[in-house]
Amino acid sequence: MGKRLLILTAGMGAGHDAVAAELARRMAVQKVETSVLDVLDLVPLKLGHGLRRMYGEMVRSAPWLYEGIYRAFFVSRRPPPASPLTALIARRLDARIRELPPDAVVSTFHVAAQAAGRLRDSGRLTVPSLVLVTDFAVHRMWLHAGNDRYLCPDSRAAETVMERTGRPAGGHAPVVRPEFRRKRSAGETLREAAGARPDDKIVLISAGAWGVGRVVETAQGIAASGRYVPVVLCGRNERLRERVYGPALGWRDDMPELMAGAYALIDNAAGLTCREAFARGLPVISYRPIPGHGRDGAAAMARDGLSCYARSSGELVEALDRLKDEAVREARARRVAALFDAVPAERVIRAALG
């Protein structure tokens, strides 16, 4: 009988789900029976969906409020308080696990990591619990000493996790779809979508799946330079798309092709889109990141030389100008390549399955 893996995610944006889906695909190749569960679906009365909507609206309309919550509960060095939401999810997760016992559990969202760690710590979960951290800046809500092992974005994050949990941790290669690692094509898909000329330098501006952040102003500033053609990726936010004066795209499944035709990516969330750009060989510039994990993640990426963090419209255009120097692009590419030299996440998980 084959091994069975349960992957826990949450539909907060699209990044956690995309990582879970790609991980499930990789494990299926290794003949592992895999199921993916959104922990927000475990919250009764569809309250999990309400939490999702509330978070999205807060990031869009009251970022200052999310920043305050993040600073108070996510990055304080005190242990996270016992959350009624986590306790509820843990109870219902326990029932789900008893129905179809897995041979290991992997969490790709911080609330899932708390719930699984809680079950493991109490003895109700008797198989290995691993956490695949999807944030470049690891906040304390990812951390629970009940989990067996942490898969972190890099060795620096792994050291922090080991120091604060006492659990084994190591870096792993980014979990992105294989299409992002394939040889770059001519990139005509993006040029046609933008209505750009053959010699135009096209800059993608990502607003994430929910279309959040001050990307309209960002696009206007870049266009005003006269040196670049901005294309805003609006995700599923059609209102945002209508507000953009210039090329704007909705949700797309052909991001590898779009990125192949871009000069650079401007990002505001420090999430999966950055990792996809890294895999595609597309330079990343963080600008006006969303509060909380977006801002901390942007700082962490820049600190490690993976990206540039522009603090003003002038710095943003200067950062784009510097990318014309092949030496600058190559130096950044070497730092990024080291991420993909790390052990694949699926290898660590397969070993945990026994």
Topology:
Blueprint: E1 4-9, H1 15-29, E2 33-38, H2 47-61, H3 63-73, H4 84-99, E3 104-107, H5 110-122, E4 129-132, E5 149-152, H6 155-165, E6 169-171, H7 188-194, E7 202-206, H8 215-225, E8 229-233, H9 238-243, E9 248-249, H10 255-260, E10 264-267, H11 272-280, E11 284-287, H12 293-303, E12 308-310, H13 313-322, H14 326-340, H15 345-353
Parallel strand pairs: 1-2, 1-3, 3-4, 4-5, 5-6, 7-8, 7-10, 8-9, 10-11, 11-12
Overview of this protein structure:
The protein has helices at 15-29, 47-61, 63-73, 84-99, 110-122, 155-165, 188-194, 215-225, 238-243, 255-260, 272-280, 293-303, 313-322, 326-340, 345-353; strands at 4-9, 33-38, 104-107, 129-132, 149-152, 169-171, 202-206, 229-233, 248-249, 264-267, 284-287, 308-310. It has 354 residues and is of the alpha/beta class. The chain has 2 domains: 4-171, Rossmann fold, CATH 3.40.50; 181-340, Rossmann fold (3-Layer(aba) Sandwich). The strands form 2 sheets. A 6-stranded parallel β-sheet has the order 2-1-3-4-5-6, with helices on both faces. It has a 6-stranded parallel β-sheet with strand order 9-8-7-10-11-12, sandwiched between helices. α6 links the parallel β5 (149-152) and β6 (169-171). α2 (47-61) packs across α3 (63-73) and α4 crosses α5. The longest helix is centred in the N-terminal third of the chain and has 16 residues, at 84-99. It is globular. The two termini are 13 Å apart.
